[in-house]
Structure formats: structure tokens, C-alpha cells
Amino acid sequence: MSDDSPRDDKPSGLTRRALFKGAGAAAAAGAVFRSIEAGAKESDTVPANVQGPGTVPVELDVNGAKKKLEIEPRQTLLEVLRLPLDLTGAKPVCDRGTCGACTVWLDEKPVYACTVLGVEAAGRKVTTVEGLGTPEAMSSIQKTFVAEDALQCGFCTPGMVMSAAWAVKKHGKDLTEDQARAACAGNLCRCGTYPHVLKAALACARKGS
Amino acid sequence: MPRQVTYKVGIENFEKYRKEVEGAVQEITVEVHELDAEPWPVDTPLRHVGHDIPRLDAPAKVTGAAKYTYDINTAGMTYCGFVTSPHAHAIIKKVDASKAESMKGVLGVKTFEGNRATYPGYIAAGVCAESPGILDDALQAIQVDYEVKPGPCTTEDAMKPGAETVDMRGESNVRGGRPMQRGKIDEAFGSADVKVAGEYRTAVQTHSCLEPHGSVVQVNPDGGATVWASTQATSGFARGAFLRGLGVQRNRVRVLTEHMGGGFGSKFGPGSWDAIAAEFAAKTKRPVKMLLSRRMEHLLGGNRPDSIQKLELAGTKDGSFLGIRGETWGTAGNGGRGAGATNTMVYNWPARAMRQNGVNTFSMWGRAFRAPRHPQGSFAMEAIIERYAHEIGMDPLAVRMKNDPHPIRQVQWRIGADRIDWKKNRRKVPGSDKGVVKRGLGCAAARWSQAGRHMSRGGPYTVDIAIDREGNVTVANCVQDIGTGIRTVMAILAAEELGTDPSLINVEVGDSRLKPGPGSGGSTTSPTIGPAVRTACVVAKDSLKALLALEWNVDESKIEWTDGDFVDPAGKRATFPQACSLIGDDGLRVSGQRQRNWTSPYRETAGCQFAQVSVDTETGVITVEKVVAVHDCGRVVDALTARNQVNGGVIQGISYALYEEKQLDRNLGDMVNPTFDTYRIMGMADCPEIDAVMTSVVSGFNNAGMMGLGEPATVPTAAAVANAVFNAIGVEVPELPMTPARVLTALEGKQG
Ligand code: FES
Ligand code: FES
């Protein structure tokens, strides 16, 4: 992956699947959050920071608003956004970190929301596509997506917008085509909107916002 | 009274090229229904039609405000999921769901004990639960015992004598196609200077829609039902087992598809999964949400059947085709549609003989996939043409043009060749580049024959228009916008006709309660509904004329619509908003019916594509560097969304050519790559430069001159890429996808 890929440093060392499959019986007893130590045996006493299996309270900062929620530790950030919060912009498509349809920003960097646990997002800044703009007050990248027709069915589009917006934010006016490509390389689109997405990202960068 | 109208049809841009081709513009006479709009001839200056217009629903889609079926969260929602068979063929002996049934929050379990599961992914049990988490737990807790049976899952295995048959009464899995013959095929081959034969193969491609199949089903307290469905046919969705499961009268079911995350032919009727969700909805009286998992989507959501194609071409030594014959085999699983391969109609073949056979296998049905049978047929036919050209030492583009009867494509070949610089960039001797990385060019043709229809068994296709006294316009039809932009097309046509702006038109689609419209298949949506929008606008303007006639105290037939204003002979004038101010508070509501198609000299849409590739002969990796795609969809209504759709066809085509293959476990028949990391579709990093060019062709079929676009745009891509590979390395890769391994094998064969 090139330097411009936003996802080369993962938000945490754990993926959801590694967590549940790898942690075995510990996972069955409840989700373990950043706590599996090398060599620890399953029969060891449960560490103090084990959460679950019931719900736990979290406070999330989503699009600038603080949200107090009761969530299951196994719920991904994507699930939490879509269900209790009804922020359905981020889409579940592959549910395993390959398609980018669930892309949101965590502390200003794009992540696949399906590979981040809801509890992991606590205390961090979450930005979703709804947080960038609304149909009446679109952000600059959203306006360029509209003008360049960088969408068809639109199911990949919220994720694409988040990746493209990040590229524009990071590189500003100097955004190159390669950088824009790399930023969106983790977003699959079955309708084939890539050429128009590229155009939109570059046009938005040139406009300088 | 119908009126005779004589007008010019044909291509209306690319002045330089259209002059070179006879028949690129022609005059025709048609009979126009009294209520229908006057056809727009070639070169009519139009304010909105044919321009770059952003799609109407884009602001909702780029901000996450657009609600897809998957996004519906209504109060009291429940969730439905499935346990499926991993076997190609098995009897579901026992389903132990007792643990799941007793879990708190599980609302229903349905099992299918005793069923014969004839494909991997066959539903053994369905569960309805209060939350996605409980659903997951319950599904995990279900134990299924299978009696595994033999189940050949590849076309070749299923064709073997004595193979287990899908149809238990059947003796063989081969469903022989009817032989098709035109012209004197034996004579053609007997008299040929040159004969070329080849065998080609293509893999199964899954639709891979990003939004999976599924629905949200709700039985309402009043005895009706509301269904949100990810479907390409809103009006026909409530039917069959789904309707029975729902237990609601058909006329009380409302189906909504406001936005839809991709279908490509795979989402017409409801699936067995929808039927189970409907039963749960009926039983629990709560809304049920059911969207297939990605694995189920790959297994069950539909696919483009594979193909084995044996072809022979006969021709003269100066490049005239004499005949083509062959036989194809392919599997659409348990017996679905779309097995076969064809695209021969593109060229003039004095004689043709083809037989397309379907082979039943133990996998889920194929479904219509963007131009069913055509990309695979195009790949083989264009490959054999390429070899024929090579054999007689002729430029393969010249050979194609020599045998191409379509005047529009004759223009398009010229445009495309110039834009890819065919003369300079084609290797005169295939494979002649020095060095490890070799480049080449290839081209191929597309056709499609859809100009829409005026009615179905649901009655005449009808567009409603509502106008209020403030001049707000609503255009409505039950048709769904599956990402192809019909909403915007409707707005553009209405704005053009009413002299207003597309962004001011409110379009309502995707609701089964609206007037009849087509399912979105066969690239028929726009050419079916577009002309009806114009007709409805004419009716609306007539009503406004009647209001003005009262106001002005003149005969309404004297009032004309000129330059966006109503005028009478005495010089009175009213703008569209002024006329609207005469409408009562109850609003003006009229409708227009799609009229019958006329006959047009352009029976089919034309298209052609050119690809430039580089091939690394050490690793076998093919890189598509550039594609020029020149297409016709009749008159272009929205140039911006049309180019986007062509890009999409090309991208799916390259993905088909290079990456996509449903891989099966040879013993179990299960798909081993049902995820997006193992089943590759093209991403941004691989996407070449695409030059999408629209020739706008007034077709003469209907008042707007429209035809379809979605499907032809993906027909010739794989063939053009494959021919470019041949031009680059001097040997053909006869199997799709052209993986590095297949490229290296082909290169080895060349050396050995
Ligand atoms: S759904 Fe998260 S990456 Fe695909
Ligand atoms: S627009 Fe349909 S998947 Fe990207």
C-alpha cells in the first residue's frame, strides 16, 4: 500500500474477527477489549477490563454531538451508527474490511466502520457522511460529487465521499491523481463510478476547500 | 386524428464523421397519435435534453440522506436471517432448532427438514429475532444434519454420462438448445478461402450488487402491507410465494423502492428468502428486515453463466465473412435463465448456424446479468474474427468495418479509431514489441435492440403529471431508479417540454401505487418512460390552453406554444407560470400514455470499443491502459449520466475480462470465494482512462428518439481487451478471466 492509503495504520491492533475467532472461549464469555496478552491462557482469571456479554454504557462523539448509548461490546461501530443512531449513510456491504462502503472518519482519519468496535470509538471523534453536509447544505466535496455525477446507484457513494474528502483535506490544492486514486483504492463500486469520482476529487481540490 | 410527420432521423453530432457515411442521417415518415408529442428531428436545438445535467437524487445520495431498503429502521423492527446448506446436493435430514427457539428475543423459526437442497446456499432454516445480535446467536445455535449426495457442479462434470441429474426425472443435465440456422451454411464453408476454428471459455460471474437482495416487510394493522424492496420491478414484486407468505391480498400490498443499490438484472421477483421474511411478518405482525449476507448474495443473488464455445468462421481472403457456426454450453445452475452465448447479429453473416445448450448443475440459478449471453458471445466471436484477420493479413478493424451493416457503427468505428490512434498504436505484427512488457490494441462491436414498449400486461405505460397554481410540477410513474438515472431523465424531458428547469421538477418513482411502468430490464426503462413524459406534458399543456382560452375568450385550438410561452393570434402571451396561476386549488392532474413504437431504419443501437493494454510477459499481468467506448442510446437525454453509465459498462467488462470468477470447491461444490477480498471486482487502482463517447442518434422509434444504453455498454469490453492482448503478445488467451496464470500458459504454448 502506498503512503497515501489512509488505512495503513489501523485504529487498533484488533480486528473484530481476530477478536472473536482468535479469542475463542474468552470471546464466548464476553468481548475483550484491547486486553489479550501474549501467552495468557483462557483459564486465567478474566481481566478486569472484560466487557459484556450484556450491554455496556458508552459515550460517543458523532458529528460533533455527544451520544450516550448502551451497546453490546461485540457491536461494530458500523452497527452502532446504523441502528441505535439511525445514521444509515455508512453502508454494510462486505462486513469484513474490503469494500469501503462503511468508511467514516475516526479522529479525522478514514476507517472501515465494520472493523472498529463501537466501544473502541468511545472518547474518539467520529465523523460520518451525514456530518459533512446535508442535501440543503452540502460540503464542497459533496457538491463536486453532484456536479461531476460521481455516483450511480449511490450505495458505495457515502464511503467514497469520505475517502475522497479525506484526500482533499490532506493534500489540498496539490492533490495528485495518484493520491486521489490511492485514497479511494479501498472503496469498491459495482456501478463503475471511479472515473467520475476521480474527477470530482481533483475538481474539489482545485477549488481549494 | 393521427397525423403524418416526415422528419430527419439519425446521428446528430460528429458532423465530420457523419458526412462520410451513407445512411447516418435519413428522412422517415411516421404516423403520430393525436395526443402524442411532435417528434424532435435531428439537430433540433434543445435547452436541456442532451446536456450535462446532474442527477436529481444526487444530493440525497452524497449526504447519506437517501434511504435504501437496507436503511429502513421502523419502530419495532425484527430481523430475519438464515442457515444454509454448504453442499451442492444434500437431503436436509434433521434441523435441531430447539435451542434457538427457546432463546429470549427469538420470535420465529422455520425449518425445511426433508427438503432436497440442490445448491449450496439452499435455506435449511430461517430465524426471526428482535435484534441482529440475537439473530446471530440463534443462527449459530441451529444444528443441521445433511445426507450428502453426489452433485456435479461444473458444466463439464454435469455433462458426463451417468452424472447425477438436478431434475430427478431427467436422464441428462444437458438441456439441448434448438439449432438456429440462417442461410446456406455448408455452402459457405465449402466455398471459403479461409476457415478458422477455436474453442473459448468464460467463467461464472456474480452480479455482486453492493446492496444485497432483500426487503423490509410490514403487515399493517389495517390488513394491508408495506414492503420496501431492493428490486428492479417495484410493480411486480408482490407475487408468488412471497404474496402467499404475506397472506395479504395483492391489491393491499404497497411496494416501495425509492433508492436501490444495484441490480444489473438480478433483482426482479422476490426470492425464497423474501417469502420467509413475509411469513414472519404475517406471524409476528411486526416489521421484518431481511437482507442477504454477502456470502448468500454471491451464492444466491444471481450470476452470469459460464460458457464453453466452439466456433468456426468461413471467409474470403479479402476479408468478407461467409459464415459462422458453432455450439455453446453453459450452466445457469438448477435451470435458470441466460445460459448460452451470442452476439453474432452484429455483423453481416451470409450464413449462420448456432446451437446454445444449457446444462443443469447443482448450483443456484443464473439470473439475467447486464446483456445476458452477449459479453461471452462477443468475446468468442470477436476473437475468431481477430484470428481470421491475422490469417489473411488484414487490419482487423478494416475486416470488421467491411462486414458491418450498421451506418451508425460505421461512424463510431471512425471516431473510436481516431481517438485511440489505431493507425499508430496498433502493432502491425502482433507480439512484435521488444522487451518484457508488450503493448497492443483491440476493438469489438456492441449491439442492442431496445426502443422501449408502449404497454405490458399491466396496461398501457402511463405517466402522471400534477401541476399546481404556483407552477410546481410533479411527474410520476411506478418505475424505479436503479442508479441509471430515470428520475433525472423524466425531469429533463418534462422541463424541456414545459419550458422550466429540471431541478424544479419533482419526480416520484419507485412506488407500486403509481401508474404502470416497466421493470428495469433490457435497457428499456428510459425509452419506455421518456416518451410518455413528453406525451403527458402535451396533455398538460392542452389543459392549460383550455384554461387560457376561457380567460382570453378565444378558441383553445388557436393558442400555440412557442418558445416556452402560450400565445394567441391576437398577440396575447402567457408564460408557463402565468398559465399555471389559472389552475384551481385542487391542482391540475393529467396523464399521458406511451404510444406505440414507430419503425425506424436504426433497428438496433450501435456501439464499439477500443482497448489499449500492456502485458508483462514475465508475470502474465495484463494492465488495461485506456478504453475508448463509443455508444449510441438513441437520442442522448442526459449526457453526463450517459457517460457515467458507459464507464460503468466498461469497468464491469474489464473486471469480467481480468478478475471475476466464481470458484467452486471441486468436491463440495460450494463457492470458495464468496467475499469481496476473494472474489475480486475492479477497484479504483486498476481503473484505466476511459473515453466514453456518445453519438446521439435520433432513432425514429418514438417522439424523443430514445433507445436503451445500460446493457450494450458492457457487451464488447472483454472482447476488445482480449483482442488487445492478442495484438500485444501475438497469441490468444482463450479463457476469461485472463488471469496471469492463463496468460503465462498461453505464452508457453506459443514458445512450445
Ligand atoms: S462493509 Fe466495511 S469495508 Fe465493507
Ligand atoms: S454507485 Fe453503485 S456501487 Fe457505486
Q: Termini distance of chain B?
A: 74 Å
CA radius of gyration of chain A is 18 Å
* Spatial sequence of strands, sheet with the most strands of chain B: 5-7-3-16-13-14-15
Number of domains of chain A: 2
Provide the fold topology.
The complex is a heterodimer of chains A (209) and B (752).
Chain A (H helix, E strand, L loop, with lengths): L15 H8 L1 H5 L1 E2 L17 E2 L4 E7 L2 E7 L5 H6 L20 E4 L2 E4 L12 E3 L1 H4 L7 H8 L9 H15 L5 H8 L9 H14 L2
Parallel strand pairs in A: 3-7
Antiparallel strand pairs in A: 1-2, 3-4, 5-6, 5-7
Chain B lengths: L2 E9 L3 H4 L6 E8 L25 H5 L15 E7 L5 E7 L1 H4 L4 E6 L4 E2 L5 E7 L2 H9 L2 E6 L6 H5 L14 E2 L4 E3 L2 H6 L3 E9 L2 E2 L7 E6 L5 E5 L10 H7 L6 E4 L15 H13 L3 E4 L2 H7 L2 E2 L2 E9 L5 E10 L20 E9 L14 H19 L3 H7 L4 H14 L1 H4 L11 E12 L6 E2 L2 E2 L1 E6 L5 E4 L9 H13 L6 E4 L16 H28 L7 E3 L2 E3 L5 E3 H5 L7 E6 L11 E12 L5 E11 L6 H20 L30 E7 L1 E2 L18 H13 L10 H12 L1
Parallel strand pairs in B: 3-16, 14-15, 19-20, 25-26, 32-33
Antiparallel strand pairs in B: 1-2, 1-34, 3-7, 4-6, 4-8, 5-7, 9-20, 10-20, 11-18, 12-17, 13-14, 13-16, 18-19, 21-31, 22-23, 24-25, 24-30, 27-28, 28-29, 31-32
3D structure, described in words:
- The complex is a heterodimer of chains A (209) and B (752).
- Residues 8-43 of chain A have low confidence and may be disordered.
- Chain A is an alpha+beta fold and 209 residues long.
- In chain A, helix 5 packs across helix 8 and helix 6 (157-171) crosses helix 7.
- Chain A has two domains: 54-131, Roll (Ubiquitin-like (UB roll)), CATH 3.10.20; 133-209, DNA polymerase, domain 1, CATH 1.10.150.120.
- Chain A contains eight helices and seven strands; from the N terminus they run H-H-E-E-E-E-H-E-E-E-H-H-H-H-H.
- Chain A is elongated and about 55 Å long.
- By secondary structure, chain B is α+β, with helices and mostly antiparallel strands.
- Chain B has three domains: 1-34 and 406-451 and 598-752, Aldehyde Oxidoreductase, domain 4 (2-Layer Sandwich), CATH 3.30.365.10; 35-66 and 452-593, Aldehyde Oxidoreductase, domain 4, CATH 3.30.365; 69-151 and 213-291, Aldehyde oxidase/xanthine dehydrogenase, a/b hammerhead (Aldehyde Oxidoreductase, domain 3).
- Helix content of chain B is 26%, strand content 26%.
- Chain B is built from 19 helices and 34 strands.
- A seven-stranded mixed β-sheet of chain B has the order 5-7-3-16-13-14-15, sandwiched between helices. In chain B, strands 9, 10, 11, 18, 19 and 20 form a six-stranded mixed β-sheet that branches. A four-stranded mixed β-sheet of chain B has the order 21-31-32-33, with helices on both faces.
- In chain B, strand 28 and strand 29 form a beta hairpin.
- The longest helix of chain B is centred in the last third of the chain and has 28 residues, at 525-552.
- Chain B is flat.
- Chain B starts with a strand and ends with a helix.
- Classes of the chains: A alpha+beta (209), B alpha+beta (752).
- Chains A and B meet through helix 4, helix 5, helix 6, helix 7 and helix 8 of A and helix 2, helix 17 and strand 33 of B.
- One FE2/S2 (inorganic) cluster (FES) binds next to loops of chain A.
